[in-house]
Batch of 2 targets.
Target 1
Amino acid sequence: MYALFRKEIADHLDSLRFLIVFAMALLLAGVSLYSALGGLSGAMGNDASSFVFLRLFAVGNGSIPSFAAFIMLVGPLFGLILGFDSINGEKNAGTLNRLLAQPIHRDAVINGKFLAGVVMISIIVLSMTLLVSGVGLFRIGIPPSGEEVFRLMVFTFFSIVYISFWMGLSILFSVLTRHVATSVLSVVGVWLIFAIFFGLIVQGLTTALYPPVTEELAVRAVEFQQQFMRVSPSQLFTEATGTILDPTRNTLNYLQMIEHYYTGGVTGMLPLGQSLLLVWPHLVGLLALMLTSFVASYIVFMKQEIRGA
């Protein structure tokens, strides 16, 4: 498996596709940094101004999303691009038969491809984070505290797991389908459903089940919508990273947030450990989704007839 892992890493680094993805990631990081610097002056007027460095990743200028929002929306594309032809591409090229003719185990192929993809995703996310951190530190002139560094490390880990899930899903479609175009259309369709249409579906379902006739039904509608939205990996990532990057967020309940805002409650700073307790279910959910997608592709690949492909 180690030999195949090194082979996949070398193939990624030598491919024009990875260079394009890497350049696009750095470009998005630069755009999000520009947005954060433009919106930072308005964000520093509150009590959380001591965490200015974290706001480089959580604040936008209103017209351009923040760094975290870019990761949520565009990050899945990085994973999809890295994995959509990992298996059926080699089948169509005839290289998978020759590869499996060597004295290696079949599971080493799928394991090596997935681990190499995770490493490449880690390189992309770390490069984007370091770019925003370095240039942002130069522009604002305020070094991060120790807790900000640890929160940023947790955010980076969440981002890698989130994008790796989409890469595992693209590998699954690559195993299930024979043609590369079919796997691309399938996985992009799933991404579009969760990125664009899922919120509309949940909103329509909530309106049908809980028409806002009474205050109690309105409260139930909000609670139902929030719980159902957490089926989406994008929602899990958004809530988790928002809590990690904003130490003043002490609840994930939308109604409690609204009540705290309108009652003028005192905003306190949660330590990192307490923030992790809030988002621990989200991390478990993302890890479960990532592992489920990989295990499904592993099982299907191990049972496939390669010689007839």
Target 2
Amino acid sequence: MSAPAPRDYASAPQHVSALYEENHRRQTLAFVRAQKARFGTLDRARLSAWEALERLDQLADQSDPDTELSQLQHALQTAESIRLAGLPEWLVLTGLVHDLGKMLCLFGEPQWAVVGDTFPVGCSFSNAVVFPEAFASNPDAREPAYGSPTGIYTPGIGLEQVHMSFGHDEYLHRVLRDRLPQEALYVIRYHSFYAQHQHGAYDHLLDEHDRELMQWVRLFQPHDLYSKADAAADAESLRPRYQELLEDHLPGQLEW
């Protein structure tokens, strides 16, 4: 794929850096554990995947410096990019639904607790995470038990055992964990973990399962980023194709 370099944070609007400052200050291990318990109940709504996509047409991601289009538009652009590249149908489906966890915003959650790059908590924060200086205000940065690269974990423990900053990735993984193959679920769960899949900053926490599946995240990532275009996708013409895809793989209603 060819495209202008994305994610230009150096010239991003002020609201982008403000969101990350809030995110990095407040995403502590205690916060993550509380959010997992709070939203793990999946009792807020029953909606089909397409209904969720349509609702996200009212939401723009304030952490994204590359597009101001709605999340429905981003989903369609991503799915179309993967489809046109001739990649497996399950990955096209993943592209279509990967950001549905941003439904959290429509349940009243602030965007700093939903969007943006993800990172492990309970260990030291990597400088490979965007706006790393903002971690100085995070209480966990002053907790000795979390001050090393492994923190409360052990080398090679595997990401399944690591608490990540909570947001749309982890939430959607919980919504869909019994409905999609493990490769799709892994992409959904870690597609915002740029410090790892772009920079390898947390290699010391990965196990062999992670190393095998992270290849799919890397394959997915350019389509997530480089498909963003100023021109909106024609949602009405694409609707039949993608409604059928969802009916084939995610029929009925989902618990949110």
